[in-house]
Amino acid sequence: MEDRRLLERERHQIEQILQLDNEELQVEEVDSLPHSDDDRDAINGHGGTEAFAEFTFNSSLTSLHTYLGEVEDSHHRMAFLDGGAILNLPVIFYVSGVVLFPEATLPLRVIQSNFIAAIERVLTHFNTPNTIGVVHVSLDSDNERLHFANIGTTAEIWQFRRLEDGSLNVLARGKQRFRLRRRWIDVEGVPCGEVQIIQEDLPLRTPRDAFGELTPRSTVQHHSLSCALASYTSCSRSFTSGDEEDNSASISEESFARELSLRERKIHQAAIDSRESCSDEVITGSEAKHQRAMSHLNDSDSVGSVHSAHEKENGKSVPDIGKSSTSAWESSERKELKRCRRNSSFTLMHGVSKAFWPYWVYSMYDSYCLAEKAAAMWKQIVGVPNMDGFVKNPDILVFYIASKIPVSESTRQELLEIDGISYRLRREIELLKSIDIIQCKSCKTVIAQRSDMLVMSSDGPLSAYVNPHGYVHEIMTLYRANGLALRGRAETEYSWFPGYAWTISICATCETQLGWLFTATNRNLKPRSFWGIRSSQLADPTC
Question: Is residue 227 part of a domain?
């Protein structure tokens, strides 16, 4: 029943495409930004299709890649391989301009006869049916050599079409990451390779029983500092007044604070402030504050000032430690000070047991907390209405965002190579925070703002498409763009977006081809026009 409903939906979508193709072609000439004031008012700044008051384009048509023609389903499905499994792939596609992630779609147009024969073998392969390898390749700008990535993705051919000229149109879907162990070219000139499947980890959740029963780490540190201050104060009073005082009767924070001098209270309050700031800073930052407080106390001048302030409050006269004196009493006093500091708890505080980290530290690596944060940021940028299903599955969300995030291909390859759900989510959150402007990679000209992003495909604001010559492009769709010029006439043939004509667009500053302008061929389509920018020509947002 589910397959029948899927076929009926696809048949209905194809009928919509044919209706769009049969309508009269009305391509508008575009001199600058092609949007009216009404169109601008329809955007709320988040870039999603929901941002349009009158968004009439069916974005699900784009994800079907209907420009490839009618395709047929492959009969075999590849099972997931165990992590660590080693296998030989009969064909590996080394592609530039695109990085394939698990669950992402990759369209291919296979033209060369040796690759066509290899795909035919893949479709009937027994051990790994319908499975190919996809590895990103880039041109090293320093020595102009090809750089092959070590981490790639297996892809399953789930739809294909044989054309009259013998070529193949293929739709593949990413499955599992692999590490390329060895690569070679077979006798027919087809790239092959030995790969090892990467074992993916499971989402990490904060161990709820890891805290709550033990004393918090920050409390332990505060108690140690308080004890250290009490120990030092007791020692200071003992040798200045000549009387032994028992300070062990009151160890509470209030009673301890009342016995401190003005100078000691300031230092004590600094320690408390350092503890409270732990919730907003990393632990190392809090430790640095404690160390500064301790070093301040351990400084000989500070010790003298604390001692002097204490004695003045008690109305006692003290020898002037700052003056040069060689009296035996002063020498013994200084030795007593040093001995007291060595025996106090200041030196022991560094060795305090860490007990446990507070909850906010755990949440920094909790996959579900990170997924919730990343989903909220993604929704704000793209305008996706509901991300609850993804938040409950961080292992799916992490690859979903990685395959759609509008960054350069080198940064996307970096995301593919990160091991660990939490670590990849943390990097994605960092990138989502940095996405503010979109720039040309060559000349750094600002093309658009983050709020100009537009979702024209159900796959997201960034998707892969293949042209008639077999070149795969990942493009990001924008509602408006600046600093671009058009080259050539508008064409409707092989349009990636049904009902839209495309025109080549270049950077007006460096004349690099950045992408295409898509204009509606009938007046019923909204938006009237939009831009498609190649991700390979985008500058890294963190640069």
Answer: no
